[in-house]
Amino acid sequence: MSTAPKLPPLSLYIHVPFCVKKCPYCDFHSTVEKQIPEDGYLATIKNELVHWRHKLCNDNRPLHSIFFGGGTPSILTGETIIQLLKEIRQLWQLTPQCEITLESNPESCHPQKIEQWLLAGVNRLSIGIQAFNQQRLDNLGRPHSLVEASKAIEYSQQGGFSNLNLDLIFATPSQTTAGWQDELAQAMSCQPKHLSCYSLTIEKETPFATLQQQGKITELSEDEQLELFTTTRQILESGGWHGYEISNFAKPGWECQHNINYWQSSDYIGVGPSAHGRLSQIDNNMITVARYVNRTRDYLEKQSSDGSSFSEERICSKRESGNDCLIMGLRLNEGMSRKTYRYLRGIDLVEQQPKAINELQKAGLLTVTKEKIALTNKGLLLSDGVIEKLIWVD
Ligand code: SF4
To answer: Is 19 touching ligand 1 by the criterion CB < 6 Å?
Structure first.
């Protein structure tokens, strides 16, 4: 007998759209300001938080996780983070284990700020190290040096952040496997609880895309990228950081709860310019999803007094919700929940795609249990192709 769907956990994402300089590969929304309009930003975010609390006045879910992302959240004063978390606590209850992450860049990761973040209640710090090699940092146009990166890690650990993530980028032009092995060894020697290793994608309309068109940089070949991806998994897994998601590795028990919420098709409110949100509604034993996208331009200038003009709402079709669940869920090592897919799509994936599932299982790319559908290690390397065979197209 199938059980009725329940609302998933609720998270909160806060976008901080300021950076000290724009990295040439980045397409996230952020601006470089001579003077950061911190007061205006704080007032607008508070306004938007109040708007969401009113909109969700009948929704008494506590916040499961909070994530300050960017941009560069560590560019803000520690006082602003204290104010924001105080406001959030006045509006929502937090679960006892609520994970509160702040993304930081090495150049703004100072002992005084670290103390204030901890005081504010931040309990997970993510540092954008990106490379343990000065030449690669220069090639990536990062605003920090290798020395600053090491200091930021030292300050954070000495300051009291035990839940530390280091962000790294690999598959950058002319990177070698030997060099990457050395960088991974340096990352592991810092003993972070979590490592995020993303492969570089050259995004349209970035300075990197222009350099590529001009022939000044070349993306690594697929084989080279695959070799670096496999090397990453082998080295980190053997060091005790298990790959619980395609690009994310953690010591057992230190997986990022906020991102797991995304991959498990749970709910989140997004505040700040360009932030996205997702909310479920239960209807007739099915889950309907509404998505929200915040304005990027003029976010600070065009605020309405009740915060209602921040985002556009769109109700997703069953096809979109099912496909999102599949694309996100298969990123996880444990796989996608068949039950969640069924509530979103209205049919079990195995019933919907029996032939494709059978073929992928026979090819050793997919495993199917009563609860989950997951990629095998071999399937992980060919994930795009596997997902393509399973997504629902009319
Ligand atoms: S610091 Fe981060 S968000 Fe800012 S431009 Fe660089 S990569 Fe993008």
So the answer is: yes
Helices (H), 330-374: 338-345, 349-352, 354-362
Tens of pLDDT, residue by residue over 246-293, are: 999 999 999 999 999 999 999 999 999 999 999 999 988 999 999 999
Ligand 1 pocket check for 266: Cβ under 6 Å:
no
pTM attached to this predicted model: 0.95
Nearest CA to ligand 1 atom 5: 22
Does the beta carbon of 16 sit less than 6 angstroms from any atom of ligand 1? no
Query: Whose alpha carbon is nearest atom 3 of ligand 1?
Result: 71
Fill in the amino acid letter for 90: Q
CB distance 27 to 203 below 8 Å: yes
Atom 8 in ligand 1: residue holding the nearest Cα: 26
Domains of the chain, earliest start first: 10-260 (3.20.20.70), 335-394 (no CATH)
